[in-house]
Amino acid sequence: MPRPVPRPVPWPVPSPRDPVMRILVACEFSGVVRDAFLARGHDAFSCALLPSERPGPHIVGDVRDILHQGWDLMIAHPPCTFLANSGAKHLYLGCRRENGADGDRWANLGHAAAFFLAMLAAPIPRIAVENPILLGQMRQWPPSGAQHDDMTTSTTDNVASGMKQSRAMSLIEAAANVVAGYAIAVVTQIVVFPHFGFRPSLRDNLTIGLVFVGASLVRGYALRRLFERLRARSG
Fold first, then answer.
1. Least packed by Cβ within 10 Å: which of 65, 121, 163, 234?
2. What confidence tier does 6 reach under pLDDT thresholds 50, 70, 90?
3. Which H or E run contains 103?
4. In what order do the strands lie in the sheet with 58-60?
5. How many other CB atoms are there within 10 angstroms of residue 66's CB atom?
6. Whole-prediction pTM value?
7. For 28-96, what is the HEC assignment?
8. Sorting pLDDT into bands at 50, 70 and 90, what band is 44?
9. DSSP state, 15?
10. Does residue 29 or residue 166 have the better pLDDT?
């Protein structure tokens, strides 16, 4: 026996008692979502940096400038180019963490995060914000309700503070620290040891210094990775 084909559920027809809402569709220039709400009898506007592709109520400009205009509902589609976790590798030069951070990309992430959080913190009672799977760094920044200029600055600072140091950079930092300390240690040994009745040759001083270099290198690298892991967990 053939299975019955389910019929599509019709969109409910609004009644005269349904309240008319002022609706803002942020970051939309197609007009599709806006027009769907207009068809339902609501007072809907779209807003984007580009003109609307179809006639209808549309505001060209930065949507953050009109968030305080008494909207009942906002549906936002903020750009996800710099926020999506799928693009995490682009935060580093050549898409490799060991090459160091791409400063421009991190700055763009800060601005994009500020915009995204401004949508969530808007003084509107009903908010729906479209977003991808976000970068892990975004989880460190709950909406604060700050003005978008201040939020951009603070979010960019948070982005910089959220940057992790790679294992390769940890090793380079530890090695540079130890090499500088090695030269100081050898000189200190030559000056201090004789005061304690110990007069090793220059070769012995260099050998002793190398032993301490190895111990210091292992210690510095291990502690750096430990604190990086603790910081990642706390973040």
1. 234
2. very low
3. helix 103-120
4. 58-60, 43-48, 22-26, 73-76, 126-129
5. 16
6. 0.52
7. CCCCHHHHHHHHCCCEEEEEECCCCCCCCCEEECCHHHHCCCCCCEEEECCCCCCCEHHHHHHHEHHHC
8. very high
9. P
10. 29
